[in-house]
Write a structure and sequence with these properties.
With about 450 residues, the protein is of the alpha/beta class. The protein has three domains: about 140 residues, no CATH class; about 170 residues, 3-Layer(aba) Sandwich (Rossmann fold); about 80 residues, Helicase, Ruva Protein, domain 3 (Orthogonal Bundle), CATH 1.10.8.60. The protein is about 40% helix and about 20% strand. The protein contains 16 helices and 16 strands. Strands 1, 2, 3, 4, 5, 6 and 7 form a seven-stranded antiparallel sheet that branches. Strands 9-8-11-12-13-10-14 form a seven-stranded mixed sheet, sandwiched between helices. The longest helix is centred in the first third of the chain and has 23 residues.
Length: about 450
């Protein structure tokens, strides 16, 4: 049979099926005709294979579908569904209702905008279907359904409609592989959080910090040890595996508040430009299991847990053990040793950490103290935060008077001195001399500023 005869037979079959559907449903439906006409089957014969993803995978689903269409062609352009309560009914339910009652009809595609980076976004289908073919040539429909937490739709969904489950499953698997190949989350800096709607999980893109080694003021050898345990393992990962060594590592940065633990973490993010970073703080630490799963998928990756003592307090401190502790331990154990994943933890209270977390190799295998700066460190911090200013003050007396000063204290000191300089000379460049610096220091060391010093983590003498 030639192509003309095949096309004629296909059109005739479509007319017969449309007529049968019209008789069965009591009325014609352009929506049903669009579906059954492409698939070459009555609606009750259509098989649907579904896969759900967290809402942050929406752009990846769209990317995978677009890649599949690019490879296999678009036989029926994107179309949508109009009418009814679309947010409360699944796709096959809407089609069945459209067939029986006419509540839904052919409509325009719903689109939404979803982030794909800290300053980039893409348009994605919120609700729509498109016709294409399976690798073997069988007709299939792909449908995307975006999450809508406000209306109880907490996950994104990909649905494949075909006349056989094997065909639909094959196409869904192909789309998933294409999603993995072009994963838009890989290499990003991501922060977990929760939305206002029923506490649904969110994933936010953050810009990657760009700090130089000169901007990290630590005692000699400390930063080298940190880099060797993180950047060094990442750089030599393949050779370490070949030598029978594991890649997964746990690094704990501990020390008083304000000494630069978070600053050091930000520096490491910039030094690992192709590494996925997943940040958990506060209440988002309850999502550590999902973060670990994502980290393994997107390796090389770093999972950052700030102030981990909030969930990993030593069990000897009381009978109540926080369930999140076990979630954290399970997550760290669940990532295999061959995975290029770093768990990077920070705490202000290392002595209170659960021993099972802090002492067991394979969970945390390097603990590094970030101490209060010594005299040389205090001078380096003052000069660091004075960049961009005209600093004429003698730093010697200030360094001597600020034993116990944190990096946060030094940063605020220079800002206050700058404000004093601007108040005295508003039309000139910001020039910080002895008067401005000593006045600012006197204010911050005043007894009435004790709480401010505490909030900055400083124990600087009055």
């Amino acid at each position: 049979m030639g192509s003309t005869e095949r096309d004629l037979a296909t059109d005739l079959a479509r007319i017969v099926r449309a007529t049968a559907d019209e008789v069965a449903g009591g009325q014609g439906s352009e929506l049903i005709e669009r579906v059954t006409g492409h698939l070459g089957a009555l609606l009750p014969e259509v098989v649907v294979v579904t896969r759900n993803w967290p809402m942050w995978e929406h752009a990846n689903i769209q990317s995978g579908v677009d890649a599949y269409l690019a490879a296999h062609g678009t036989a029926v352009g994107w179309f949508g569904i109009a009418g009814g309560q679309r947010t409360h009914e699944d796709l096959i339910g809407m089609l069945a209702t459209a067939r029986r009652q006419g509540m839904y009809e052919l409509g325009s595609v719903d689109y939404t905008t979803t982030a794909i980076g800290p300053d980039a976004a893409t348009e994605a289908v919120q609700l729509g279907l498109v016709g294409t073919h399976a690798p073997g040539g069988e007709p299939v429909l792909l449908a995307i359904r975006g999450a809508n937490p406000q209306w109880g739709l907490e996950q994104c969904r990909l649905e494949v409609l075909a006349t056989s489950r094997a065909t639909a499953t094959e196409v869904r698997d192909r789309v998933e592989r294409l999603m993995a190949e072009g994963d838009l989350l890989r290499g990003q800096v991501l922060a977990f959080g929760t939305s206002e709607h029923r506490g649904n999980e969110l994933l936010t893109f953050l810009p990657r910090p760009a700090l130089t080694g000169e901007e990290v003021v630590l005692p000699d050898g400390v930063l080298d040890a940190i880099e060797r345990h993180t950047i060094g393992i990442a750089r030599h990962g393949e050779r370490l595996l070949a030598a029978g060594q594991h890649l997964k590592r746990g690094l704990l940065l501990h020390g008083p508040p304000g000494t630069g633990k978070t600053h050091t973490v930000r520096y490491l993010m910039g030094r690992l430009p192709d590494t996925t970073v997943i940040i958990l703080t506060g209440t988002a630490m309850k999502l550590v299991g999902k973060a670990a799963e994502l980290a393994r998928r997107l390796q090389p990756s770093v999972v950052v847990l700030e102030d981990v003592d909030l969930i990993a307090q030593d069990r000897s401190y009381g009978p109540m053990v926080q369930p999140l502790l076990f979630t954290l331990l399970d997550a760290m154990d669940g990532v295999g040793g061959d995975a290029d994943v770093t768990f990077l933890l920070t705490t202000n209270r290392a002595s209170e950490l659960e021993k099972a977390l802090a002492d067991r190799p394979g969970r945390v295998d390097l603990a590094v103290e970030i101490p209060l700066p010594d005299a040389a460190g205090r001078e380096a911090l003052l000069r660091l935060y004075a960049r961009g200013l005209k600093l004429t003050a003698d730093l010697g007396p200030v360094v001597d008077a600020t034993a116990g000063m944190t990096a946060s204290f030094a940063k605020e000191l220079l800002r206050r001195a700058s404000l004093l300089a601007l108040g005295a000379r508003p039309e000139q460049d910001v020039m910080v001399g002895d008067e401005e610096l000593t006045t600012a220091l006197r204010e911050m060391q005043d007894a009435r500023s004790a709480l401010t010093r505490s909030l900055l983590g400083s124990s600087a003498a009055q």
